[in-house]
Amino acid sequence: MPTAQPPAGPASPEVIEIERALNRINYLSTRARHHDRLMAMAGVPLDRAAVALLRQIADSEPLRPGELAHRLGVEASHVTRQVQQLQRDGYVTRAPDPDDRRAQRIEITPRGQEAIGRIRDVGVRGMQVALSAWSSGELRQLATLFHRMVDDFLAHAADDAQEPLAAARPES
């Protein structure tokens, strides 16, 4: 299956502005000071990498560490270290994989669910304050467009992941 190639020529001004806005959002949301304040308000002593992993585990069915690494776009060894720490702290547990008893899946514990709930609550309350002047229609439209954009990004990323496989296949 051929993948969509970027259009030749310069990007549209709208896409350039979207990329700039996303970079600003990313910068604001990944600052250490912001993370530390969020964790203090939530009462959860986790670093950014642990929170990202715990969110992924909370939002999915139990997964193998390799699948977690793939979904987060990190090395498996990074996930292994983070899972070990989260397990020691009681946020996750390992369970046998029903499809392969030699493998394990990572599951969130009630303590992990509570921690993610508190982190999300603090984040949502902060967003609510920041967006308080927006109408419910504007918020609904933004949410719809964000979900659509993320879905398109994920579809594009899946196409990119398939490209090396397609190139390696012999022509029939």
From TrEMBL:
SUPFAM superfamilies per record: Winged helix' DNA-binding domain
One Pfam family recorded for the sequence: MarR
Domain HTH marR-type: start-end pairs: 15-151
Protein name: MarR family winged helix-turn-helix transcriptional regulator
Species annotation: Streptomyces caeni
